[in-house]
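Example record

The entry below shows one chain as it appears in the dataset: sequence first, then structure tokens.
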Amino acid sequence: MPLHYLEHYLLQTSDIAKTIDWYEHVLQLRRGPTPDFGFPVQWMYIGEKDVLHITHGGAKASDNRKAYLGQQSQALSGTGVIDHVAFRCSGLADMLDNLRRAGVEFKERQVNDQGVYQVFLFDPNGVKVELNFPVEEARAAGVTAPVSAKHFEYQHVEDER
């Protein structure tokens, strides 16, 4: 059975309000219906689909949450073993304007053989977010990434076992 799409990811933070605000204003996700799990959590939506769940982590993580989720990680920053979370997007020019207005630092990349224009940024908790737009949108907007995947030379790294 193949995987079809990213269901959601859970982000644990020491500041739920700040994290919700960032995802609302920077990436324009919206707050939506959130089940009562007996611990603080907010679900964030794209359209009608919940894609991000935000809750307390570290010392603020409730015992209910730890028990319910079988929570092991107490990390509050960085991405741990996950390097980034990616979203398929549209509206590149508007997003770039929004990021600049919000003062959010980002990096742009282009993958020509996949027709993808990528924008990488970090949320307030140090989680890397990748936004993927059709390369045609970049061309139409006259936007060129400073780095293209075809410009990288890959070096073979010997396995150090």
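Notes for this example: The CA atoms of residues 27 and 107 lie 15 Å apart. Confidence is low (pLDDT under 50) at residues 151-161.
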